[in-house]
Design a protein that fits this description.
The complex is a heterodimer. By secondary structure, chain A is an alpha/beta fold. Chain A has one domain: STAS domain (Transcription Regulator spoIIAA). Chain A has 3 helices and 5 strands, in the order ββαβαβαβ. Chain A has a 5-stranded mixed β-sheet, with helices on one face. In chain A, strand 2, helix 1 and strand 3 form a beta-alpha-beta unit. In chain A, helix 1 packs parallel to helix 2. Chain A is globular and about 30 Å long. Chain B is an all-alpha fold. Chain B folds into 2 domains: 210 residues, no CATH class; 101 residues, no CATH class. In chain B, 81% of the residues lie in helices and 0% in strands. Chain B contains 12 helices and no strands. In chain B, helix 5 packs antiparallel against helix 6, helix 6 packs antiparallel against helix 7 and helix 8 crosses helix 10. Classes of the chains: A alpha/beta, B mainly alpha. At the A-B interface, helix 2 and helix 3 of A face helix 8 and helix 10 of B.
Chain lengths: 102, 338
């Protein structure tokens, strides 16, 4: 599989799976997919290699939407380089984030 | 203030206050809280008071009539005093982007116009209501508009050269004086003056404001990504082999090894803090609540100050090309300190 191409789909346990690079060119498709789900809770980022600011916006907008219903996003299997970006931006206090293997 | 005066002042100022509210509301990043906007408007009102005194003094020494004075002298005095407020805001890095500078500029002008209109209404109580309202509204938009233009031009210039002297205010100041003098020139043709100030100026300001917001968003995106790459290269140990790293190493003939180590630490810390500031902007843009600054960030801000002192002025100057220290870069850290 070409890991550079961004892909978003539902996993076997109903979690959202993201693979590749989530940058400005992909964020619209990602947001459309997430908005199509009533209440996405768990996002598996094991295959996410890179996230740009536009990608962070996608997570923030989704978090805001589902927070209105009292829920929150849980980001699992986050690779260290992506986790660092969330941490630097201070978003580790906005999202429930766990690293690879969690 | 009696009821009649209050009513006339309100008629003249409410639309301007509404426009100011529109600008504050249109600012997706919530760069200037309402309390700050009101404080800036109060400073604009003080500038108007000082301007009254300066104009009275200057007019006594002016050989021509009042019409000539208002065209050729008063714009210089009034825009200078508005510029004083702007200097305080820009040099103190209280505003750093065209967006917040635009709001601040309009707030200065609104405060200035409030005092000028009250004076005008009190000194000419018998003028017809519609004349006072139109005159007051025109003046308020003009003062807001000229200060906005001056603020946005100045901040744009300081963005490229954040440590430049006060001379960078001159282009914006000159444009503001020209607009102000042009407005006073048009007072003999009130219909044209009203059209220019009420219809054209707010539209131009709003369009420039929205464009500036897009520029800010683009900067946010590109700078966040470049800071992430910088931190990745420092953390992975590949930074010193990059072009920026080679530039840092080239300073070894002028600085001690421990200074260079401090510089590398500063680059990393500055990158981390800049990313946190951008995180705050992204949260505001999304309309989400910001969590309070944690202890770790406060420690990092203190460490940044310590490193800047240790590296010294010369070292900081040498580092500037590596830190991409534009006005926005320096301004954004204020988000963390406020």
């Amino acid at each position: 599989m070409n890991r550079q191409v961004f892909e978003i789909r539902l996993g076997t346990a109903g979690e959202v799976v993201m693979v590749g690079r989530l940058d400005a060119t992909q964020c619209e498709a990602a947001l459309r997919f997430l908005n199509g789900l009533a209440e996405p809770r768990v996002v598996d980022l094991a295959g996410l290699e890179y996230i740009a600011s536009a990608g962070l916006r996608v997570f923030l907008m989704t978090q805001k939407r589902i927070k209105a219903a009292g829920a929150g996003l849980k980001l699992i299997n986050v690779a260290p380089q992506v986790r660092d970006i969330f941490r630097y931006a201070g978003f580790d206090r906005i999202f429930d984030i766990s690293g690879g293997g969690a | 203030m009696d009821g009649r005066l209050l009513m006339r002042t309100s008629f003249a100022l409410v639309p301007v206050l509404l426009f100011l509210a529109v600008l504050v509301r249109a600012d997706s990043y919530k760069l200037l809280p309402l309390r700050t906007v009101l404080s800036i408007a109060a400073a604009g009102a003080l500038a108007a008071g000082a301007s009254y005194v300066a104009n009275v003094l200057a007019f006594t020494h002016f050989a021509g009539d009042f019409a000539a004075y208002s065209r050729y002298v008063s714009p210089w005095i009034e825009e200078s005093l508005k510029a004083v407020v702007l200097v305080f805001l820009i040099r103190g890095r209280r505003v750093g982007l065209p967006v917040d500078a635009g709001i601040a500029g309009f707030a200065i002008g609104t405060g200035f116009a409030l005092i000028e209109n009250i004076y005008y209404l009190m000194s000419r109580p018998d003028t017809a209501l519609y004349v006072q309202v139109i005159r007051g509204f025109d003046t308020a938009i003009m003062h807001g508009g000229t200060a906005t233009v001056m603020a946005m031009i100045s901040v744009t210039l300081y963005e490229r050269r954040p440590n430049a002297g006060l001379y960078l205010l001159l282009p914006g100041f000159m444009v503001a004086v020209a607009l102000h003098a042009g407005f006073n020139q048009l007072l003999v043709r009130p219909a044209l003056a009203t059209f220019a100030t009420v219809l054209v100026l707010p539209l131009v300001i709003y369009l420039v404001f929205k464009h500036s917001e897009q520029v800010l968003r683009d900067w946010l995106d590109s700078d966040l990504d470049s800071k992430v790459r910088l931190l990745e290269s420092i953390n992975s140990g590949t930074f010193l082999d990059s072009s920026s790293g080679r530039m840092l190493r080239s300073l070894s003939d002028r600085f001690h090894g421990e200074d260079l180590a401090d510089m590398l630490c500063l680059l990393r810390l500055h990158g981390e803090l800049a990313l946190r500031a951008k995180g705050i902007l992204l949260l505001r843009e999304s309309g989400m609540e910001e969590p309070p600054l944690d202890e770790e960030m406060q420690d990092k801000l203190a460490e940044l100050t310590h490193l800047e002192r240790a590296i010294g002025r010369t070292g900081m100057l040498a580092l500037r090309p590596l830190m991409m220290a534009t006005g926005k870069d320096m301004w954004q850290l204020k988000l963390l300190k406020s």
